[in-house]
Structure formats: structure tokens, C-alpha cells
Write the C-alpha cells for this entry.
Amino acid sequence: MTTLRPTAAAAALLFACLSFPAAAVDSAPAQPEKVLHMFLSTSETGLDPAVASDLSSLSLLENLFDPLLTYDYLARPVKLAPNTVTELPRIEDGGKSYTFHIRPGIYFTPDPAFKGKKREMTAADYVYSIKRLYDPALKSPFSYLFDGKLLGDDALKTKFSYDTSIPGLQALDRYTLRIRLSEPDNNFLYYLAMPASGVVAREVIEAYPGQAGNHPVGTGPFMIGDWKRSDRIVLLANPYSSAVFHAEPGNDPADKAIDAALEGKRLPRVDKVEVKIAEEFQGRMLGFLNGEYDYLEQVPESMIDMVMKDGKLKPDLVKRGMQLYRFPVMQTYYMWMNMEDPVIGGYGKDKVALRRAISMSYNNAEDIALLKRGMAVKAQSPVPQDALGYLPNYRSPVPYDPALANTLLDKFGYTERDPDGFRRAPGGKPLTLVMHSEATISGRLRDELWRKCLNSVGLRVVFKSDKKTEIIKASRLGKVMMFESNWVADFPDADNFYQLLYGPNAGRANYSRFNLPAYNERYEKSRTLPPGPERQKLYFDMNQLIHAYNPWVPLTHVLSADIRQPWLENYKRHPVEFTNWRYLDLDVAQRGRATHSE
């Protein structure tokens, strides 16, 4: 197991070169260290904002690296806010030109690449960081955010060089960044609030060739501490952080209380975040109930009965001061099928019939009742309820109907059976579906539901278990036939979900490798339109095409049950951001009393 411990060498350098304001150094008694205890449900893959796309890595990245923009913590509906800029950008030229003014005095955390000097972040660092998404050596899954949109970016794609200047991405001076687009993009500012747009320093990237993900050096609210891969990550409060809390709370008294507690204060509020990798549901639940974690988001469906009864938190947990929150996650669960796979892929009628039969075999009601324990709703399309562009009246034309699925398979040549009674492919060739799955208890439960559903229409399926991070890597290379996955919104617009089926994104976020001209044309047109009836009509047509060709089986949208410990302060879950660690505070004395009394 690889262990990276940058703090031992870096800490001495860090505090040697820091100069704090006089008010920060006094003779007040030392306060107890505030340590936030958290877990991630899967292992991180690496901490390079241009490369990592799994949920665990993104959760860490947004705390280590700074994009230009962020989200107002309290505003609902969600609202963008300045992060490393003095204000939201000046937008000109019909929505094609954006001018940002970088806030002076933001510094990268120390690293030997800086040769002992404090390194201020500048507009040129954002130019370099965004160019990295074009670097063919990185194969960034986020290149689609800017590819073909920045004015003159063909120069980066024909012969890539970090020193190539393009009119669409320019540092006008040390603190002024101008971005120009070829065409307006209504979601462009959302891209600049994503971890992939986080700023990095060229010296650091070049000091560790091919190893940027092992040496995360950013300007975010935290810096990396001890790091034992796939086991434990410690984030330390960045002493260089100059972030200050501002928000626009609504009328909710709880939001107003958070605003009153945080307004004008420096972020983050805790000294350290200790993060464990906890892949098994039971371990997470028991750890939370024993006070090892400060909050629990999305109580595992199989564990609902441990903490809830009749839809409420159990009385003994209420007595302990715990609080329950219900949260509609902007997330879609779906099972995708590889459109380039020789067994299940293709656009011919026989392959379309096979995928549609698979879709019709899926028992959504059983999934929601037994696996999700009622904490989900049926997905009618890729888009969850709270995303801008959601079609509330759309209903999937592909029903749960095993009898009709069997008839469809008979009609299109899947009539012969092998000695075990399973269908053969047209022409009598053997037919075995291979579905990847996670090597967890919940993964095995999903396997059994899928086995039951597929067997009901005469289809043989075998399961290949692996870690999700490995499955994602193989999926990008087109080496996975089928996999049940989920997508959490990067930004609050339906576009973020429809791009998962856009042909040019194959090998990136489009794991199904769906590439249908009729869909691509509608998607491209939808990107040029503001929210409204014309865009909604395109989304309706795209839904129909998805259900006609069935590269996906849309499964569910999750309703999350979240619980926090009584000593945790300022907790509010955000619909888009992965974590809220920078805003959280702790009553250390109350935690001590609670954990010692249990």
C-alpha cells in the first residue's frame, strides 16, 4: 500500500514562510483541535483535477483545489458565487466573452517545486489549468467541457502545446482572465465551478511527470496531510486560505442561523478532516452510531431499519440529539449497455430488441421496495426532478413487462434454447450477458435482482465483480458489456445528464458509447438554447430516442435519509457540491461528553 506523507517535510517549510497577522498570535489558551471525522464509500483513484472523475476523488478535489466560481452555500434554488474572483464575471459579446478579476493574495500550499518561496496564484495559472484538459496525454474525462467551445481551440487539438496561445483563453494581466467562446453556452459558468476547473501550478505538475494525482498542491480550503491510499486521507486546514463566508439565506430559520454563525468568518472552520474509506454499509452505519463519523449522508437502503421506524428517526437516536434530514438527491441510477459490444451492442433490429427486452425485464417496483426500501422514485428519463430542464409529465414508453419482452425476443430470432433453457442468439450462437458489479453486499443484492429479471425472459447472465474504480477505468476503454451505475449532477441542468449519451463523449462520461446522429444533433442544438419550450421539446425527443434504442435502462432517483450528530454545526446539504466540509464546525466539548457517555 502506497503511503504519501507530505506534511513532515512540508510543514516546517510552511510555517517557516508563513507570516500571520499580529492579531492571530496572542497569549490566549490553546483551543482543542477541531477534527471532522468523515468517510468515503469507495477508494479514491487519484487527486488530479484534470483526470479524476469518481465521486470519492471529486469530494477530495473540491476541498484541495479552487475553481473560479463556487455555489452559495445557502441559496435555493442554487446560485453561483465568486470563489477566487472579486465578483461574478463581466459577460459581453452576446454571451461569448467573460472577464474575471482574480482576488490578489491567494497562494498555493507549499511544495518543494516552489523552492521555498510563497507562490501566488495568478490568471496565468487558470490558463494553464484549463489547457490541461486538452492535453492528449491525460485523456481527461472533462475535456468535453471546453472542447470546441473556446475560441481558436483547434490550435490546441491539432498540435497540443501548453505554450500555444489561443484567443479564447488569455491572461490579460496578472489578475485578469478573459475567456471567449465560439458560441454562447448557457451552462458555461457552471463548468467554472467544477473541480475539473480547479487551478494548479505548472511548476508542480512538471516537477512530478505523470504523477500529478499523487502530489495534490492547490489553493483550496484544505491541504493534503497523511494519505494512505484506499484507506485513510487527512486534510489539514490551509493556513494560506483567505476564503471568507458570504451567503444569501432564504426564510428558513435554520439557514438564517447558519448565516449568522458564519457570515464574514474565514474558512474552513475546522482544523483537520480525517477521512476513512468505508466500502461496506454495515461498517459505515456502526461507525456513525458509535460516534466515529460526524454525519451520515444517504443511509444505505439495507440499513434503514437500524435507524428509522415509520419514516422517522428512532426515539433512542432522537434522545441522543441526532437529527434526520430528507434530501432529494440530484442523482440518477441507470444500467448502461455498451453499444459497441459484439453481443449486446449495435443499432440493428435484433440488437435493439435484445436491449429493449432487457429494459422491460427490469422490475422497478421490486428494486424500490426491497433494495432501496422505498427511498427512491422510478426514473422516467435520465434527468432527476430538481434539474433545470426536467420534464415532469414525461413517462417512459418502455414498461416493466416480461411477457412482452419474451414475445419481442421470439419475434427477432432469439428462439433457440440451450440445454439449460436459456436463449441463444439469432442463428443459434450461444448468448451470455456479462454484467460487472461491485464486490459489496449491495452489489451482490443488485446482482440477484438482475439475475432474476433477466432469467425471467430467458437470458443467461454472469457477474464479474470488481472495485468500482476499476470498472470505471475498463468502461472508458469499452471493455465492459453492462454495468449499473449512477450519476450525481456536476451542475444543476439537464444538460449534465444528457451529455452522458452524446456520441463524442464516448470513452469519457458516455460509458454506453451511444452514438446516434439524431440524438447528437438534438443535443448540440439544445446547448445553444436558453431554458424554455424549444429546449424542452428537444429534451422530449432525446428521451424518446433513448427509449427507442435502449442504450440505458433508467432505474431510479434517490431520496436520501441524512443524519447528523448533535455536536456538528452549520450542516446543510447542497444539491451540487459533493461536500460541505469547509463550512462545518464542531462543539468539541459536546462531542467529548457524548462519546464518553456511550
